[in-house]
Amino acid sequence: MTASLIGERIQDLLDRRSAVSLQQQLYRHFREMIEDGTLRPSSRLPSTRSLATQLGVSRITIVAAFDMLTADGYLVGSIGSGTFVVDRPPIRSHTVATRAVPPDAISLRGQLILSGASGLQQREGAFLPGVPDVAAFPYAVWQKLQNRYLGQHLAQLSGYANGGGYLPLRRSLADYLRVARGVRCNPEQVLVTMGTQQSLDLIVRLLTDANDQVCIENPSHWAGALMLKSLGVRSVPVNVDREGIDMRDQHYAMNPKLVFVTPSHQFPLGSILSSSRRERLLREAAQRNFWIVEDDYDSELRYDQAPSPSLQGEDSSGRVIYLGTFSKVMYPGIRMSYMVVPSSLVSSMVRGLLSLYRPGHLPLQAALADFISDGHLTRHLINVRPLYAARQAELRKCLAETFGDAISLSSGFAGLHLTLRFRQAVDLDALQAQAAKRDVLLRRLSAFNHDVGPFEDGFVLGYGALSQDDIGTAVKRLYEVYQTTHNGPC
């Protein structure tokens, strides 16, 4: 297919009235053309400049879409040669007529795990939560750093990870966390993992037994509660208010093995754990010998004030396990995260990590070490903070102008999402379904509720991947749907 024909095909597919950004539409249409064979392996794509001219869009938009496709394994490019479809692109999984698997063929544990997987493949649409703006990431710098190590015959990068990960990366992380988050650690306490889920899985497997009790925030991300259930551990939901998790006497009296918290920016309500509750939590952990798991998943993305210091930095008894990730500050597909564990747990955690997962990706870890130590991570954060701050401010403004007093929003200026609740009865099921038809994706707040008692439902609105120019259109579409559904039952 010639360059002009590719441009004409994409031109016909673009919907400039959609709430989905042009960048995401371009990503989707090129991906589908590669997967269905319209664009053959090794095909050369039009230059970003010529395609931008033909489509009448910004070249930056084209570059961002191509960068996403490259990161997902669909395209490959080289300076001076152009951009090509990879030789072996990912294959779309077609539906095959096979005999249905009997329900009892999947274990009860397996059925529980599968019940939590809906929505994970969604990559586009207004208000998709938990997704950063991957177009803002410096891919050119990142690719240059990776090229230092990929394909080279470096013995220290060709086997399994040694101990808790690539030592230079652990050193870079220890230095970065001491300055950026007030974490007190040495490099040996830093363990590199393949995503926060792997960190949690290791912690739960090594530090709990079946029927042990673990306190979790309510509401909170569904993945943690799901993991606990699948491993036979009893989760105890603890309500969250404006001061964070509200641990009461009865919760401490249970002598939980673990307490999961997001103290610097609670997900999804956005509250910050108050000083008095932080102090008591640390004191009770020291006295009762339970472990605090601090998930600091997006603390760097704070816009109205300096982030609150890490709980780990205030821990004088070695009871806090600190978790961090690069999925929010870099891009989700990197699947790289880390743990900072108390000295008493280092040996056991390193052995468990090696025994269960055989972690690797050492060339990627080496590039990441350079990315941090050379200052690229800090510069990237300096660049994206005002970007996200402006988007959140724009979303708040548009919602206030459109909905007025009909809604309430979560407080605080941090992270990549807002929580929205309606003050009057709304048919949330109908609103969610009708909005999806207009490319407005609404994630229910109740999806993060782990209790059976009364719960005030609403929606979690992500703005990280939504350009500031598209926010007004997306809010307008949401309001149009709301007007047709707000008289129904809540």
- Which structural category do the helix and sheet elements fall into? alpha/beta
* Strand segment count: 14
Mean pLDDT over the full residue set: 87
Apparent shape: globular
CATH domain class name of the largest domain: Alpha Beta
Biggest sheet descriptor:
8 strands, mixed
**Number of helices in the DSSP assignment:** 16
The radius of gyration over CA amounts to 23 Å
CATH topology of the largest domain: Aspartate Aminotransferase, domain 2
What are the segments in which pLDDT stays under 50 over at least 5 consecutive residues? 93-98
CATH homologous superfamily heading of the largest domain = Type I PLP-dependent aspartate aminotransferase-like (Major domain)
What's the number of domains?
Answer: 3
Distance between the termini: 51 Å
Notable traits:
Arc Repressor Mutant, subunit A, alpha/beta, Aspartate Aminotransferase, domain 1, 490 residues, Aspartate Aminotransferase, domain 2, single chain, 13% strand, 4-stranded antiparallel beta sheet
Descriptive account of the structure:
By secondary structure, this protein is an alpha/beta fold. It folds into three domains: 3-85, Orthogonal Bundle (Arc Repressor Mutant, subunit A); 157-375, 3-Layer(aba) Sandwich (Aspartate Aminotransferase, domain 2); 379-485, Aspartate Aminotransferase, domain 1. Helix content is 40%, strand content 13%. It has 16 helices and 14 strands. Strands 3-10-9-8-7-4-5-6 form an eight-stranded mixed sheet, with helices on both faces. The protein has a four-stranded antiparallel sheet with strand order 11-12-14-13, covered by helices on one side. Strand 5 and strand 6 (244-245) form a beta hairpin. Helix 5 packs antiparallel against helix 9, helix 6 packs across helix 13 and helix 8 runs parallel beside helix 9. The protein is globular. It starts with a helix and ends in a 5-residue tail after the last helix.
